[in-house]
User: What shape does this take?
Amino acid sequence: MSRIQPTRPQIEVIAWLAIFLLLFCLSWGLHWHERLDEFIDNHDDYPLDHALLALNISGFLGLIYSALRISDLSREVNRRLQAEKNVDWIACHDTLTELPNRRFLDSVCAQAMSDQRTQEAYAAFSIDLDGFKKINDLLGHDHGDAVLKAVAQRLSSLFPRDRVFRLGGDEFVVLARRTGNVDFAALGERIVSVISKPVTFNGVAVDLGASVGFALCPENGDDLSQAIRHSDCAMYVAKKQGRNLVKPFVSSMQDELAKRIRVEADLRAAIKNAEIVPYYQPLVDLKTNKIIGFEALARWRTASGEFIPPSEFIPVAEEAGLIVDLTDQLLRHACTDALSWPSDLVLSFNLSPIQLSDRLLGLRILKILGDVGLPAHRIELEVTESAIIQDAVTARIVLDDLVNAGVRIALDDFGTGYSSLSQLSSYRFDKIKIDRSFVASFETDEKQDKVIKAIIALGAGLGVTITAEGIEEESQRQRLQDLGCDIGQGYLLGRPAPAERLAADQVSARISQLR
Ligand code: C2E
Ligand code: CA
Ligand code: CA
Assistant: This one.
């Protein structure tokens, strides 16, 4: 990339050659050799032959020395040039995949800015691998590196190598030249399909996916770097909507991204200022009508007094990598609250699906319990089936750590996902929570009624406690009680309430005052 400048040794060699040539021409032009012959003839008595011979020999030796010196110098010059080239290459390439890097891309953008024609010639594709983190975490960095190299090769088979960039991590950008009538959505699909083929390393094949966003220059950006920012924005939207999706940039995506950035910043601040607190909803024994514990439900009350529901901020916390801090904070808070409850009440606490792929989760939870002084048997963790299916190996390790320490595990939202019987038999669940969508309609929908009956029978067979969520009507409570459901939860039995109200209204007075 840098222009080649002559080095100092090169200039010296050229200068000496020029002096030598000048002297030679001068002596030739002034007929020095003839004068020298004349001088020798006139001075026979001087030993000039010997002197001249000595002069010739030393001149010859000087010539050899100069030749050797010149070859040394040119070797040194070449070595330096090569070193400079290497430094340039390393600065502009990713050493793992050997693809051009972000710096190279910046220089391409800068060049495109100064050249109007290049600006119009590209479509930018932003590519982010789906499931890469899991490969890295579960199979190690060597496997992750092999995946990145394979992706680089596959992209280079579709596009010229100097137009495929690795920006870091599992993010790639491709600049496709716009010649003819190209269907860019179809090109995006091709990118997804070449990346999605399994990658085999050390005999283990892993499935990969990719989220792709694209933007056209100049339609979607005044210059190439803006088009890349927009393709990035489209990729982010594709990623949010699922795996292996291709999205073209549309201007409304920017508003969505801006909103998400705002929510993320607010959430970060809210966690820092401990503005998100647990509310508690009672879990009621349907046979005795007694509260047996509370489910902690996160509540974010903003400075303006507005409540943001967990369905909005939990996914943002998961995506922004804030869920670990948020969970630790909420769990510590909830365990501290639970310490002041009667000792037979359990605390039920929700875990996000992605948390079950964190091997250290179990140890972190047990540390919090230890710090606060809440016995492990007083806590129940609610997990969903999707959490277990996403990463079964790690989920088992985490759940085993917890179960062995005496923590109870509840399967949340049962009936809405896979409802897999093999999951039920292979994990040691203490409780199954029937999703509230069944409770909402089982009185009028015979099929839902049968499903609820079957789940209750399954619970009885497996020795697992069954909880029904979302009980809003007395008739629902009565029917569930008649069917033999163990525990109920819902607005009829108690709405989620802050810890202060709980102490006064619920824990001390128990269910008799609640209903
Ligand atoms: P979930 O675990 O299924 O929690 C039950 C949800 O149903 C709660 O919504 C609760 O307020 C609501 N609910 C309870 N009884 C009734 C009822 O009778 N009728 C109706 N219509 N709704 C009822 P919420 O608090 O908005 O929480 C929504 C979801 O957010 C939770 O669903 C849970 O998956 C998640 N969540 C809440 N807190 C946390 C948390 O601290 N950590 C994590 N990871 N997720 C949480
Ligand atoms: Ca729950
Ligand atoms: Ca639930």
About this structure: The first strand starts at residue 122 and ends at 130. Residues 8-91 form one domain. The radius of gyration is 38 Å.
